[in-house]
Specification:
The protein is mainly β. It has one helix and seven strands, in the order βββββββα. 5% of the residues lie in helices and 34% in strands.
């Protein structure tokens, strides 16, 4: 089974809400949107290709080759990321 993972690199916790199910936090017992089931999304039933990021006019897209075609995923927005375009580096 092919999966696409979205985890916080510091904690290993979920970084994207892939499921609609509400989970319970193991430590506090409170409902949480980002639980263990949200760490990965099933993208196919065979080994997928590595994700490829494409920057388009409409925004970034993540493409993954799966059996029978290509799956596209909207990446998680990163508001604290400093975006530097290639022209800024070469001028």
């Amino acid at each position: 089974m092919g999966r696409l993972y979205a985890v916080d690199y510091k904690t290993g916790g979920s970084a994207h809400n892939w499921t609609t199910a509400e989970e319970i936090d193991q430590e506090t017992g409170d409902p949480t949107d980002l639980g263990k089931a949200d760490r990965a999304k099933i993208v196919g039933y065979s080994m997928p290709s590595p994700p490829v990021i494409a920057i388009l006019e409409t925004g970034p897209k993540l493409y993954i080759g799966i059996e029978g075609g290509v799956d596209d995923v909207d990446p998680i927005p990163a508001p604290d990321l400093n975006i530097i375009y290639w022209r800024q580096l070469t001028n």
